[in-house]
Amino acid sequence: MNQDYIKVDPWSIIEEGFDAKQVKSSESLFSLGNGAMGQRANFEEEYTGETFQGSYIAGVYYPDKTRVGWWKNGYPEYFAKVLNAPNWIGIEVLINEELVDLNTCKSVREFKRELNMREGWYQRSFTALLQNGVEISVRSTRFLSLDIDAVGAIKYEITPLNQDVEVIIAPYLDSGITNEDSNWDDKFWNTTNVDSEGSQAFIEAHTMKTNFATCTFMEAKLFYKGSPVEMKPHLKKTDSLIGLSYKQKVEKGEPFTLHKFGGYTVSRDHKESELVQVAKDALFSATTLGYEGLLQKQKEAWAKIWEMSDITINGDVKAQQGIRFNIFQLNQTYLGKDSRLNIGPKGFTGEKYGGSTYWDTEAYCLPFYMATKNQQVAWSLLEYRYNHLEKAIENAQKLGFKNGAALYPMVTMNGEECHNEWEITFEEIHRNGAISFAIYNYHRYTGDYSYIPKMGLEVLIGIARFWHQRVNFSEDKQQYVMLGVTGPNEYENNVNNNWYTSYLAKWCIDYTLEQLEIVKEICPKDYARIISKTNLTITETDDWAKVAGNIYFPYSEKHEVFLQQDGFLDKEMIKVEDLDKSDRPINQKWSWDRILRSPYIKQADVLQGFYFFEDHFSKESLEKHFDFYEPFTVHESSLSPCVHSIQAAKLDRMDQAYTFYLRTSRLDLDDYNKEVEEGLHITSMAGTWMSIVEGFGGMRILNNQLCFTPRIPKQWESYAFKINFRNQIITVTVSGQYTSFEITEGKELSIQVNDKPVSLIPGKVVQA
Amino acid sequence: MNQDYIKVDPWSIIEEGFDAKQVKSSESLFSLGNGAMGQRANFEEEYTGETFQGSYIAGVYYPDKTRVGWWKNGYPEYFAKVLNAPNWIGIEVLINEELVDLNTCKSVREFKRELNMREGWYQRSFTALLQNGVEISVRSTRFLSLDIDAVGAIKYEITPLNQDVEVIIAPYLDSGITNEDSNWDDKFWNTTNVDSEGSQAFIEAHTMKTNFATCTFMEAKLFYKGSPVEMKPHLKKTDSLIGLSYKQKVEKGEPFTLHKFGGYTVSRDHKESELVQVAKDALFSATTLGYEGLLQKQKEAWAKIWEMSDITINGDVKAQQGIRFNIFQLNQTYLGKDSRLNIGPKGFTGEKYGGSTYWDTEAYCLPFYMATKNQQVAWSLLEYRYNHLEKAIENAQKLGFKNGAALYPMVTMNGEECHNEWEITFEEIHRNGAISFAIYNYHRYTGDYSYIPKMGLEVLIGIARFWHQRVNFSEDKQQYVMLGVTGPNEYENNVNNNWYTSYLAKWCIDYTLEQLEIVKEICPKDYARIISKTNLTITETDDWAKVAGNIYFPYSEKHEVFLQQDGFLDKEMIKVEDLDKSDRPINQKWSWDRILRSPYIKQADVLQGFYFFEDHFSKESLEKHFDFYEPFTVHESSLSPCVHSIQAAKLDRMDQAYTFYLRTSRLDLDDYNKEVEEGLHITSMAGTWMSIVEGFGGMRILNNQLCFTPRIPKQWESYAFKINFRNQIITVTVSGQYTSFEITEGKELSIQVNDKPVSLIPGKVVQA
């Protein structure tokens, strides 16, 4: 545990004491987001120490020109990346003409940060002794409104402790910002207008190339001794910065307070010409409510989210804090209001992983959003890919595929590929299968078939076409083989016949053929439209069936397991536990070639297939595969432990399941990978949720019915979670003694618990 | 043939007519070099059109910070690259105050370039009508002296054709130059002193980081109407440029001539403090001889080179020009005087391929230098690698190898790895074997064993150790396997059990064990020294033997061929001839993943092994392998056709052999790959030489004896080459009717021709 400076608390993340070395890590951990925008926990006032500045607007990106060592045909020319947006939180503070800067003041004491997850706000307070001898205490509270999602609010209170002083406080906007991960040090923003009106200020700027127009705005309200003060600001203005400077004599012990309202309006949602007006409207709404009124709304909105998505754990506060942190961050990142948005691996907490959407969304995040939100949210995630289908077809064409075959990108912002490492970009094609699987999973969980005839079937056809073209017939094997792929285990590159990818390919084709029959039967009009649009012929589907029926899967008779890929058994099979500690983590200690030829697995690969298609294999077979592969798995991806936790639970290995759970739930809080300063691992947080609900709770949908096989780690007294299953809200409480179920919304429901039928009636707690 | 503008001539490369689009290509084709320095055929006078400026000093490089898309552990942090050096050829010319610039003048006629390969000079002449109405003719001749290799000379003659004019001629030096392929636009040169003394000028500059100090120097001599003129120059001087400007009234029809002597002295060869003095000494020697005297020496030196290395072809002027161009460029690039130098793939003709030394040196260039130079030159090439042994051991350590295992770099300047593409840098390890093979080949050809006990055995041990550690034991196969390699065919990456690499590895170990026994026997002192230095134990060599005796080679019983790697037969085996033309070349038309999973071979892979170890396999087996692999070979490497030409000749398929020969011999002259403007393919030129001598001539060393199996393409009347075999100079002439041999230097020699013994006596022409 490297982050012991974070206090354990069930509802808050708390840091006490100032340590400059922790600033960047805390900037990640205390990040705020409201689905529409987000920001790292950068200080409002000047800070000349090490910091990683980041404000982000959902869906606003920049296509940076690709930079590689050696160009390979097929690389995308541009790499869309998350863009650091103009800063609206900045507040310059001078006390008797000395700039407040925690890096240069004489001393800092009583430094504390709190991220209140229950209510959705972040507070920082400290007492600083300045070079000029003045001691001040500062308390800054801020939140990004869920209610008016263009707006955030800051309450910044300064109290001189040892003398009367002159305070100059200057809230400002700044569009002269850069990205840390820029490839060519291009300028990403072009500022077109910097303006103020009384206590309001506006910066209009648009992104280069993508031309997203934005208005970054703010309004300042000042209070002295608790009462509003009307002051005329002194204006500070440059090409890309505007500040409103207020001067006030402040008596010792009296608080001088700024309420700063700020945020963005964006041309994604409004006409460019109206951005300033929309900003003014938002400020009007926010200031009418006032800081406290807006905060009250914030608390109510978060209460509603928690009401549906909270997981409680009794008897383990660390675990409680961990799971809530995960749920909180997922809700800060994506709320499903806008099908153009998706879930970036770092959310609004950093720049890394350039583009925003990975297969993480379909494989890990969808179950969380299906179970804790209304159905429309999951639909939005599926619709996102439907809207990118044309681009996926273009992407496949660039790689030589024909006839409407679709390859979804490894990483994307707008449907275009944004990744440039050949072994991943061109070869980690299993991502395509996860998109078909998500369609299946959505139907399985929600029972809603309407997505498939409306949108899903076209996606399924494009993907099936891809797989059909991607295999080739091996004369030698007299079977179809899939050469040159990278599986989920990225510690292997360019392998032949990766079992997971081939199995998924076969399943995608089979499932698509099945859905074609169903849609033909029940939605003949949709069927006719889709057949006509895609030019699908019987010859083609017959060819698909031929491939799906005769695809090669590497298998070891001796070990009775499917092999991760051809040649896996040629490796030097030393188990992870027999490696010297100095060799771990191998991704830091070993050269890349050594990693590649080793048997070590970065994240579930064959076992990912056993997770997706659990019902295709017996528990005995799962056990054989788990026992064969887990000992070689180094879990150096944040997405690995959750799948293993779920499977260990299924195999009744609760100690192991719990160990895996711990790694996933406090990955960032405890900074296992020593990289939290770059941002949080948002998508893997959904895996944590799965570990509890699907792993410990054993939730499944089998034969169209909700089923549970509850288990509990011996370290816990009890835990409880809620799910929205087909518009019934069900609370599940698991203790060592019993499991109880309660429908809090909805009608009667028949479920299975440990393979036995149980009837749930609204309002009644049923033990099973 | 894309370069039809180059005239066919047996001894010269000639361009007639000015075409701005051809300037960059011609700058490559007409490049000059003398082993110590070189330069592209840039114009001396101002040229504002498209040009690629390049002057290079042998062994002077810069470690540019590596730039990659995604960093992989083990990548070198710096990438040494060939450095564009200060320009000493520049001459500014003003006619009645108008700057002569072929890009802006009214018209250019009678533009001609000639590279006289027999005598080693380059001449350019033209008549230009300037904007101001003056017509001038210019003739510029230059060469880089083989005699005083710090010095080059230019004779620049200007004759006004239609009126008397005022000429200002300003020879200059310029260190304000850049590299086209800089990664971060770093400044590579720091100029410390710019100075002049009468008609001499000097710029002292050193490279950043590597701190090579250089003095770039020049001296000007002027002649009017054929007589020397003494003039005081007007000085032009900046931080990084110095020019000596001379003004002269020139009558219509009279030549005004500048002799410019220039070049470099370098801290690699002299004390930094003496560089200016050494430069003055060199200028004194050069100017004492004078331009004509120095040119006379140049002709004599080249005559001597041709005397030994010329190949004559009767009945095919294009082929004659092609082979001479190859031989000429090899001699311009490397003369074997300095074992710190080597043969860069682009020689002194461009920047590409950053570092200078590839496995090309050992696999392709060594035979040429062994047979056309004295033995010391080949020794220097071997010594180069011996001197880099420590760095090769460090390089292996970085990748996790232990105990003195050595991995020579893929690309290097100073022994450090300079390549950063994981599938090549870390995996194209067969290069290591080529270095052992070169040691064997040197002994086989020269009969000189002394290199092995003195230096070679240590290299062999380091390499054997690498192979021993690089394989692992497959429990499944009960054999040693080599996973995750890239063979010579770079259209496959990260494959298992590449036959060529594994076979070479086995051979390296066997050969090293054999040499250990021999050195122990015949040089016990050296043996003791080496064993002590390397800590080699019996246990270790026993382990080596175990690996070499049980290494796995993929083999197809059905096809009776060794397989290029595991899984090769799973590919979709469509022959190259059945591909659509629009698919070729695949490296331009296909995405990288598609290339990788295709069966197409970039350059000889299994067949490279059959070339190296020809005596291990029957001709029938060669034929089977040739017929199996050649149809899938796209020859998209300049190193591919020569090996195929040699083997086709051996199989008596002379038409095919000749076709391959043509592709290799005029690769640059005819610009097959449409990239000659980036520089010439120097190392593959040695392959051309091999195609004639080993391919058509069938030269081999078998059982310590020189052997020939001569053949001749039906397109040729006869051809002749010379070789230095163990200090006997033998001329071999092959015609359709007979082959004749003559020893021009040396004593009696018994050789084999078509498997029959033939005795050669000095001075006597023997027909066989």
TrEMBL record, chains A, B:
Coiled coil: none
Annotated NCBIfam families: PRK13807.1 (NF010380)
SUPFAM superfamilies: Galactose mutarotase-like, Six-hairpin glycosidases
Single GO molecular function: glycosyltransferase activity
GO biological process: carbohydrate metabolic process
Active site residues according to the UniProt entry: 490 (proton donor)
Protein name (Swiss-Prot/TrEMBL): Maltose phosphorylase
PANTHER family: GLYCOSYL HYDROLASE-RELATED, MALTOSE PHOSPHORYLASE
Domain Glycoside hydrolase family 65 C-terminal: start-end pairs: 699-760
Organism: Flagellimonas eckloniae
Domain Glycoside hydrolase family 65 N-terminal stretches: 14-268
InterPro entries per UniProt: 6-hairpin_glycosidase_sf, 6hp_glycosidase-like_sf, Gal_mutarotase_sf_dom, GH65_N, Glyco_hydro_65_C, Glyco_hydro_65_M, Glyco_hydro_65_N, Malt_Pase/Glycosyl_Hdrlase
Pfam families the UniProt entry points to: Glyco_hydro_65C, Glyco_hydro_65m, Glyco_hydro_65N
Lineage, broadest ranks: Bacteria, Pseudomonadati, Bacteroidota, Flavobacteriia, Flavobacteriales
Residues reported in the UniProt entry to bind substrate: 359-360, 602-603
Residue ranges of every copy of the Glycoside hydrolase family 65 central catalytic domain listed in the record: 324-690
Family statement drawn from the similarity comment of this UniProt entry: Belongs to the glycosyl hydrolase 65 family.
Top-level division of the source organism's lineage: Bacteria
